């Protein structure tokens, strides 16, 4: 019997107090010898609408797709690239050429050998054209040369230091050229019957039920994978998902497929464990966006006052059930490992924050009226779930004491997104924003002047425009030196915190729930968005 | 009417219902004094069980469940009564026109009424609220819009029956205008069944409102019983009190309204009087 460390009998408060203990809950595998065989059932929620992982970015596709598709690299816990389909690589001193040496003897699930032609085709013909992150991540990529079948050379117009963070199977998967060549990429039949080089082969997808993935007998890593089969199950009801984990019917539930509210109960179940590891490359924040065209929100003092008035600890404790951390600024703490995060900026969590907020509002020329309110604002309730209504209810309560009368408006998803991102007919908006593997993804999207794009969701809808920030974000993209790059982003964060175009609320933390029979399920920073090649199960 | 009230007073169950409703009404009137301030206010620590500083405990955000229920009662009654009045107004107009003029008017209006009756009421209410975007007004409109067909059919039936009676024929013969006949003679003669059916409608309206709020289609700025239950659902297994107390409130209120409605029906409906 192995002794996989897992959490038991921890109250919600204890979990709050012990983030480090939680982090240690997994990743360090059991001492026992891995066992071949077994079927692992993982809950994926919600059911993906497609498995065309290379053309659609949605958090629910990679848990399935990355079992099948691999990338050139994987990442260690310090987020450094490690060999995967690429055996080694060399970056030219000017940062404009990256030469990858590829693994030998790798075959796709259809028997075709993997060569540099597949790398070239994947990058130039599929990813650069159709992958939603390509306009940022691959914008500098001009061509891929293939001097021999096991060498691929990426040519860049300018240095792109962030590219080395995006080479995993989750972000830039490698596809089989002969499957796609000469067909319409988006209509290719392999979209929902993926063919890759990964440890598991796609077998079937029963809509509304499950996806079945079987062990790849010819996997190029010797002896791997251990599991015979992975079943990805789709269970729409949150209560049923929790029950499936508690009954041992499912062995793994990632990406908070189990409601935060149920996690406290899970910790006291002896067959279950919890981990917050495996999300190191999945930073996200919940924020409050402020419409920069509103006559009051145009004033920097008013925006800062709103940031001061909100107690992030209440949201963390009562809305997020203690999972996550109060956001300090524009970047999630998860960028600390890469040396890009700073908390040396205007801090809104000071003890006298309410006095400061009131003073700023007085100075901004927004006096209190007869009902002690200064002015009113509408808050658009995020329609993606219950917890956002709770957060909105709290925000309304938090802004009343400083004299801002908030009215909540909850609409269906389509109406909400159209109101905010197309009509700009909003004052406050509470979205949840993914920040990608590098600040070029999150910060550029949110704060560049060029990202004020009518009709595009989750971009700069605050009308934030600061030429200095534009210039620095541009420089940050191209700076190959990690130290200098870190300095640029620290400065950007300081300016943004001062300008306060949005209020940063919570650094989101997802949680995985696992059955203690399952071992080595979380072996890297991508967690469930990388292959379960080393996962194994007790009998 | 006086005799009807006396008959009502002899009905013990109806009196029991009336007592509950009276209590509810007193609670609504006393709410501002009992629970001053905003029911959304974070009054204390989250998830406090009942019996401590907070009589019925606190919810996931630390809001006082008792205060929420008291303010929710106001919302439920407001929407229940408002939607019912709207349904009666519209139902009486449609049913009255159809029953009085008969012929083509009746055919058109009653086909429209039947069309509305064939659509599942709750689904239609969801649709209307989603289109109008959730607020107290849109909830009242939606619930009224799904509740009027019953009233319309009732009124059409009553008007059709009254139309052939001698006193109406006499009025017509004396040259009374349509409006005078409808408002002075026909309508007063069918108030009793309208009151009886309308009182039952209030209960249905409260249930629909709770359902809408539970699904997140209530006014997010106004406390309601459905909203409390939907907020407490996530922690149902660890904090039973958040869902249980508003659930009991809905149960008691709808039960009371049904008892009173049945009592009124028996007291005022001439056909049941002989029983």
Which terms summarize this structure?
heterodimer; A: 539 residues; alpha+beta; seven-stranded mixed sheet; 16 helices; globular; B: 275 residues; mainly alpha; 12 helices; elongated
Verbal overview:
- The complex is a heterodimer of chains A (539) and B (275).
- In chain A, 28% of the residues lie in helices and 19% in strands.
- Chain A has 16 helices and 22 strands.
- Chain A has helices spanning 12-17, 19-23, 62-68, 116-130, 134-137, 177-180, 238-246, 260-267, 300-309, 312-319, 353-363, 386-399, 413-421, 439-447, 467-478, 482-499, and strands spanning 39-43, 73-75, 81-83, 86-91, 97-102, 141-148, 151-156, 200-206, 210-215, 229-233, 252-253, 272-275, 284-290, 325-326, 375-381, 404-410, 428-429, 432-434, 502-507, 512-515, 518-519, 536-537.
- Chain B has 275 residues and is mainly alpha-helical.
- Helices cover 76% and strands 0% of the residues of chain B.
- Chain B contains twelve helices and no strands.
- The radius of gyration of chain B is 22 Å and the shape is elongated.
User: Helix/strand-derived class of chain A?
Assistant: alpha+beta
* Largest beta-sheet details of chain A: 7 strands, mixed
Tell me the strand percentage band of chain A.
15-25%
Please, what is the oligomeric state? Answer: heterodimer
Please tally the β strands of chain B and state the result. 0
In the sheet with the most strands of chain A, the strands line up as 8-9-10-1-11-20-12
Give the end-to-end Cα distance of chain A, rounded to a whole number of Å.
10 Å
The coarse overall form of chain A would be globular
Helices of chain A, by number, come to: 16
Category by helix and strand content of chain B: mainly alpha
Percent of residues in helices of chain B comes to over 70%
